[in-house]
Structure formats: C-alpha cells, structure tokens
Amino acid sequence: MELELRGEFIGSWKKYFPGAELPIVFFYSADPGDAEPAKPSVGKAHRCVMADLARVRRGASLYFEEASLGCPGARRYFGFRTEPMPEFRHFLSAGIPGRLEGERYKKTPELVDAMVRGQPEFKAPAKFITFKRWNMIGAADSPEAAVFFAAPDVLAGLFALANFDEECADAVRCPMSSGCGAIVRLPYLEARSPNPKCVLGMFDVSARPFVEENVLSFAVPMAKMARMIGDMKESFLITKSWARIKARISSAAAKK
Predict the structure, then answer these.
(1) pTM for this model (two decimals)
(2) Are strands 216-221 and 145-150 parallel, antiparallel or unpaired?
(3) What residues does each domain of the chain span?
(4) Pair 185, 165: CB distance under 8 Å
(5) CA–CA distance from 174 to each of 50, 89, 147, 160, 198 (Å)?
(6) Chain segment 38-68, per-residue pLDDT in tens
C-alpha cells in the first residue's frame, strides 16, 4: 500500500473525526509477514472471530488460516470453505428438535435455501488472511478493504462521504449477513465489482456480544476508500453542520 495514502487518511481522520477509532484492514497472502498467528479457536477454546478482531482494533496484527477458525461460518465467510455447515438450513431457522438448536434468523429452512442460492461465493486466494489496524499497514501490504467499527455519529459521516461522489443514492449496502461475512466476504466481492459499494454490518445477534452496544461495522473496498480519502477536504466535512457533529465525536472520545 502507498504509505502516503495511509498518512493522508490518518491526518484527515484526526481532523474531521477527532478521537474516533481507526479502521482495520484485511488482505490475503501466502506469507503473513510480521503478523502474529491467531490462537486456534477449537474445542473449549472456541470463540467468535470478532473477539480476536477486538485485539486488532487495539493495534495487534493477526493472521488466520483455516485451522485457526473453529466456527464453520468464519471458515466459509473468509473463503476457506465454500459449502455451508451441515444442516445449515435448520441451524439458521428453527433447528432440529433434540439434535440441533436453531438460531431462528429465518422462519423456515426453505427461506434459508433460497437465501443461500442467491449468495455469491468466493474462495480464499491464499492460505492466510491478515488483519491490521490502519496505522500498522506496511508498504508491502495490499488491503482488500478498510473496516470501521463505529458509533452512529461516525457512521453518519462515513455514509455521507460514501455517497458524495456517486450518482446513485445507495452507495452503501446492508444485506443480511453474519458479522464476519459483512467485514470480509461482502466487501471482498464488492471490491471486484465495477462500482464497489460500502457494506454496513454487525447486525448479527450472535456476534454482537463481541462489540460495544453502540457500534456497527462499515466496510469500504480499497478503491472506494481511496476516493473517499481524496474527497474529505472538499465534502460536507468542512461545513458548520459537520462541526457540530465533530464536536460531539470528540467529546464522546474524551469520555472513554
């Protein structure tokens, strides 16, 4: 990644979103470089991958491979497996009495089937997926997307900035997804579309215990991110309207 772009964003972020948390990024590679391995999440040590990403948000650089991930959903949404877990249609709906507890996110197994049929798949292009906070990105790293974990005021700014240079009014998507799907699979696929959109996520009830109560995710494919960074200095971020929100963001950060 161009370190000039990394520095430009950090400067603008501090100016227009003072005290707000930097985004994290992810990328695939055959060599995880200076990142540390995520501890395997299997057996009694099983945990949602969002718990590991909390460390990345604090500045750790972590890499995962298929063996690191105890959750079949994470293996699929990170691209290490292409097929849903066994009985997924029942798992996402009402379950199987006496054998499988259902999450009840869909009313019937048939609705799950229809949703899965409409979902594009992807295969991880390399053995490792690495996550780093924005300020930890190296020149040799090639991020797929920037992922913000943010409260409503910050999200409002990101949402407006995402739409700033677009003819359409829907530069941000919010499809039903797991927490990890909204920060990896969907933005990875968006990055390969002719007009990549941002992805609003972390509505996954199962993953929400691993983020703060007022936080959602906002994933931005890197091509879109570069445009957003370039637009910051001429957008609504320089207006009196944003100044009021900026003051509130700064105040909220000071209370943490």
Answers:
(1) 0.94
(2) antiparallel
(3) 3-82+121-254
(4) no
(5) 19, 22, 14, 15, 9
(6) 988 766 666 889 999 999 999 999 999 999 9
